[in-house]
């Protein structure tokens, strides 16, 4: 797998999502011009895709979902990613997506898991790219969460080979979504396991060409915004994670396009403390997080 540099990182714009209070307000008032403005802002900030999630209204008011898709495509030519676990909602999204308005580019179905594989039934009628969650697997017919690097990497490998062999999907059309955990509650080495899984996936010749991605906003959840040196702590943690994973093939971020990402030097305060955190478990991990607050 070729090693991307930071300027090659793709951004899937995350803001059209009711998880953001300002966006939820747009949905609650059916503010279509406001949603369009948010789409334009993300596209102008460099988003390669726009993730679209209108929450429960996608199922209770499918016409609203269709209206949002048409409205977004009326103002931007960026391809869309549809973020719903429902087969019927994804079908509605794909029916209303106009590839011509995205310069012929395919949409993304987000998120497929081993126990939500029915979303791939849509492949019979539609062409699309896919985001596969590596955080979950099916074992003896039961869905289980992945906590180790081996579990995540094995899930990723099974999914990619199945998509390739059974559906004829090209590697470039497959995104592997890695779970990025909040460090404030990570006493089990979940961050370390994710980075190790990324390394394994990036080194697997059978997976060459797939995209490795993740949502970075969770990593600094529940932490204060500033580090002891006054720097943007959460942004620093996101850049620290990328500094360690981009060399392994991590090339796509589900995030806010205008945040901007840069590699950090080895002596960077946040990077040094994040590296130390990755070596710890249990209460030692909590102590390592506390060091982020100290001068």
Q: How does this structure look, described?
A:
This protein has 295 residues and is α/β, with parallel strands linked by helices. The chain has a single domain, classed as Dihydropteroate synthase-like (TIM Barrel, Alpha-Beta Barrel). It contains ten helices and ten strands. Helix 4 (62-75) runs parallel beside helix 5 (87-96) and helix 9 packs antiparallel against helix 10 (282-290). The protein is globular and about 50 Å long. The model has no long low-confidence stretch (mean pLDDT 94).
CATH architecture: Alpha-Beta Barrel
Structurally, the number of domains stands at: 1
Walk across the major sheet and give the strand order: 1-2-3-4-5-8-9-10
Number of strands: 10
What is the distance, rounded to the nearest whole angstrom, between the alpha carbons of the first and last residues?
A: 39 Å
**What is the alpha-carbon Rg in Å?**
19 Å
Can you summarize the main beta sheet? 8 strands, parallel, barrel
Considering the protein shown, what is the CATH homologous superfamily? Answer: Dihydropteroate synthase-like
Shape assignment: globular
The helix/strand series, from N terminus to C terminus, equals EHHEHHEHEEEEHEHEHEHH
Residues in β-strands, percent? 15-25%
Overall CATH class: Alpha Beta
Helix content: 25-40%
Which fold name corresponds to the CATH topology? TIM Barrel
